[in-house]
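REQUEST FORM: STRUCTURE PREDICTION
Request ID: SP-0412
Submitted by: Lab K.M.
Chain count: 1
Length (residues): 251
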Amino acid sequence: MHNISLDTFENNGFAVAQRRPMVDPQVKEYLDQQLGRILEHRGVNHPFLNSYATRRLTREQERILYLETACYFRDVPFYICSVVTLTRDENIMREILANVRDEFGTDKSHAELFVEFLAAVGISKEDLAAYQPLPSTVALNQGIFEIYTTPPLLRALGGLYAEETQSAGMVASYDAGLRNAGYDAEVRHFWTLHIAAEIGHSNSVFNCIHDYLQDPKNRVQFERGIDDYMRLLEAYWDGVEARIARAEQRA
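STATUS: Completed
RESULT:
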């Protein structure tokens, strides 16, 4: 199980972005409640992720996990950019661009770093190009794209808050599994780097949605975006768990 909590987002000096003080304490309380709901969701506390921290996967199971992950991660930064087409709010655009700019880095993008991680665990670019992801992984990608490109804006922002928040817990779970499997800090660098990065990305979304959530009517669509994203994510992990279980049966 991940060890990410509300305190991780509020008091993390290593995050790429810090939370800014909010004028309305009720909005902050609401966003904190939603953050807690995301971190407690089965899509984050999935049985497979919880067990991964304590049991080693076979070579084939590990290959499945990280190839599905690659198919999930590959286009997400491009999808996130689409949110800005739903608004002319410069504050939202500033925070989203900061997140995406971080994804692409100054020397290597996170996608390039992920390819290096795959190579470190024995997965080549050719393996990735030939891999056929699960329907649930394809559905997750299509669903994320739909959430981020289709009005209303508040639903897209809810989906983005869910994505960036759950990612902090997810990468912590990956790191725990790799640590348990005996991989050293150099191999795990991509994941340890992202624990702080994803906390900061969640904080960036937190910083730009205060004004919208002062109106309780807007919270319905915001929560709809959270729920739509987390439903897709839970189905993704169900699919990964099932494919890995089938690989175990064939072994």
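NOTES: The longest helix spans residues 216-250.
Reviewed by: T.R.
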